[in-house]
């Protein structure tokens, strides 16, 4: 599992953002290290603290670094000169809160550094979609192709279900879909037939959230690959179950 | 002319003078920063340079004081990185770290070595901040200062003359930031509204060169 470093001018901001992201993790969370403040209660950042944080949570799968703004970015870049680990480290250009949520949720789901980096980069998509701003609806080019082709490919498996949980595909159910999809050898997409949005890759947290699907919307789950049927059945069952939110 | 080199003691004196200047002008730097930034440049630089002088400025009988130029600047750079907090920490920190790497394990710098070290420092600032001429940053004071330093050395100037020329050019560069629209840093959020104010980073950089010119311009003890 990759490690996550959160760099902020303010320890309280970083702790609160991490707490929010952990709310959305169901299983074992990734290792997260915070490098915030510049010592003695000074609001600011310190490159040596960032380097120590990277070394602390580094794993062979890598580390992704999320930063707030200004000197946080400079300090994170400078930290790469001080780190001891040879494991891969990626600085993310994601917006702070969205990026942390995407990274934590996907890391917990076992995603790779490349996938997490890409998702974090697209972390604004969901918000833009909700505000009716232009948004790339599919996060991954590979999955986009198979998504388009998928509907026509013989052997693709589909199911249609109505969202019954009260809040639709918000971050927690979206995260559980991403995690479930990662367990199957299948390319899975989801489209909202009620609103006509999608399809988006089901392994993309931000893609799923960008659908803006609400309770009562009918979604179509499509999959190709060796375990397509199992994956679709699993997601269908989760949808019917309201993603565990009906209790 | 005496041997035209800058000693380790003079470099320490330069840093002490820089601390003195940023401390004296702390209020002014912060006032500039409150117009277009987050009003902490004066206090950040004062805190940083005070920490630097605590680290290097006192004579250590236990031998922990730097005896070589690269050790000195490495210590200065790392102290700024860990004590400043704002963007000037990594920027000035990188400046001194690169100066140290380029200067190497020596005890004095001649004009050419001083110029090479300062150039490397500027290169570090550019690499870190991605600033270009006219972005309204410390680059706009530092780059002309180094050009003037080199021009003076190339025409036979000694370190005293060359650093005085560098200070003049830094001041001119600082003043030229006033009408600019910021393209880097917090001030860039203000867009056109950043025009009409001196850049705080260029202003503290002018103090850095003022401190260097002051220190070398003093009659040798």
From TrEMBL, chain A:
Transmembrane segments: none annotated. GO terms for cellular component: membrane. One of its GO terms (biological process) is phosphoenolpyruvate-dependent sugar phosphotransferase system. Residues 156-246 form the HPr domain. InterPro entries: DhaM (IPR039643), DhaM_N (IPR012844), HPr-like (IPR000032), HPr-like_sf (IPR035895), PTS_EIIA_man-typ (IPR004701), PTS_EIIA_man-typ_sf (IPR036662), PTS_HPr_His_P_site (IPR001020). It comes from the Bacteria. It is an enzyme of class 2 (transferase). Keywords: Transferase. Residues 1-131 form the PTS EIIA type-4 domain. PANTHER family: PEP-DEPENDENT DIHYDROXYACETONE KINASE, PHOSPHORYL DONOR SUBUNIT DHAM. NCBIfam families: dha_pts, PTS_HPr_family. Homodimer. The dihydroxyacetone kinase complex is composed of a homodimer of DhaM, a homodimer of DhaK and the subunit DhaL. General (non sugar-specific) component of the phosphoenolpyruvate-dependent sugar phosphotransferase system (sugar PTS). This major carbohydrate active-transport system catalyzes the phosphorylation of incoming sugar substrates concomitantly with their translocation across the cell membrane. The phosphoryl group from phosphoenolpyruvate (PEP) is transferred to the phosphoryl carrier protein HPr by enzyme I. Phospho-HPr then transfers it to the PTS EIIA domain. Component of the dihydroxyacetone kinase complex, which is responsible for the phosphoenolpyruvate (PEP)-dependent phosphorylation of dihydroxyacetone. DhaM serves as the phosphoryl donor. Is phosphorylated by phosphoenolpyruvate in an EI- and HPr-dependent reaction, and a phosphorelay system on histidine residues finally leads to phosphoryl transfer to DhaL and dihydroxyacetone. This is Phosphocarrier protein HPr. It comes from Salinibacterium xinjiangense. The lineage of its organism: Bacteria, Bacillati, Actinomycetota, Actinomycetes, Micrococcales.
UniProtKB/TrEMBL annotation, chain B:
GO terms for biological process: glycerol catabolic process. Pfam families: Dak2. The keyword ATP-binding does not apply. One of its GO terms (cellular component) is cytosol. It comes from the Bacteria. Residues 9-214 form the DhaL domain. The keyword Transcription regulation does not apply. InterPro entries: DhaK_L_YcgS, DhaL_dom, DhaL_dom_sf, Dihydroxyacetone_Kinase. GO terms for molecular function: glycerone kinase activity. Keywords: Kinase, Transferase. PANTHER family: TRIOKINASE/FMN CYCLASE, TRIOKINASE_FMN CYCLASE. This is Dihydroxyacetone kinase DhaL subunit.
């Amino acid at each position: 599992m990759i490690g996550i470093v959160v760099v902020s001018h303010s320890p309280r901001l970083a702790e609160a953002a991490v707490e929010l992201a952990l709310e959305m993790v169901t299983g074992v969370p990734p290792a997260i290290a915070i490098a915030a403040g510049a010592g003695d209660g000074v609001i600011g950042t310190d490159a040596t603290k960032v380097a120590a944080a990277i070394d602390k949570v580094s794993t062979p799968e890598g580390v992704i670094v999320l930063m707030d703004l200004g000197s946080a970015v400079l300090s994170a870049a400078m930290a790469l000169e001080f780190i001891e680990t040879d494991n891969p480290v990626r600085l993310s250009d994601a917006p702070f809160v969205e990026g942390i949520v995407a990274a934590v949720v996907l890391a917990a789901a076992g995603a790779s550094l490349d996938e997490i980096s890409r998702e974090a980069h697209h972390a604004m998509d969901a918000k833009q979609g909700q505000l009716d701003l232009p948004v790339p609806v599919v996060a991954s080019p590979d999955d986009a192709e198979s998504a388009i082709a998928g509907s026509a490919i013989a052997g693709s498996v589909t199911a249609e279900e109505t969202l019954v949980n009260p809040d639709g595909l918000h971050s927690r159910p979206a995260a559980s879909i991403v995690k479930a999809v990662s367990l199957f050898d299948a390319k899975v997409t989801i489209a909202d037939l009620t609103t006509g949005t999608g399809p988006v890759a089901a392994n993309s947290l931000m893609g799923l959230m960008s659908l803006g699907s609400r309770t009562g919307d009918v979604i179509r789950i499509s999959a190709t690959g060796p375990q397509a049927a199992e994956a679709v059945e699993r997601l269908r069952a989760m949808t019917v179950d309201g993603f565990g939110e009906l209790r | 002319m005496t041997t035209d080199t800058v000693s380790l003691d003079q470099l320490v004196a330069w840093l002490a003078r820089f601390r003195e200047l940023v401390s004296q002008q702390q209020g002014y730097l912060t006032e500039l920063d409150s117009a277009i930034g987050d009003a902490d440049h004066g206090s950040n630089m004062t805190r940083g340079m005070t920490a630097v002088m605590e680290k290097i400025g006192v004579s250590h009988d236990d031998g922990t004081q730097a005896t070589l130029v690269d050790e000195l600047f490495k210590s200065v750079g790392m102290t700024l990185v860990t004590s400043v907090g704002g963007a000037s920490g990594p920027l000035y920190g990188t400046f001194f770290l690169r100066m140290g790497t380029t200067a190497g394990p020596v005890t004095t710098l001649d004009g050419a070595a001083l110029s090479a070290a300062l150039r490397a420092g500027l290169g570090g600032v550019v690499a870190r901040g991605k600033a270009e001429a006219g972005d309204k940053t410390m680059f706009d004071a530092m780059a002309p200062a180094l050009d003037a330093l080199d021009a003076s050395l190339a025409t036979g100037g000694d370190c005293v003359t060359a650093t005085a020329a560098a200070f003049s050019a830094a001041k001119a560069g600082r003043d030229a930031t006033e009408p600019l629209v910021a393209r880097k840093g917090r001030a860039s959020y203000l867009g056109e509204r950043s025009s009409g104010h001196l850049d705080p980073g260029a202003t503290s950089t002018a103090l850095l060169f003022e401190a260097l010119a002051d220190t070398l311009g003093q009659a040798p003890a």
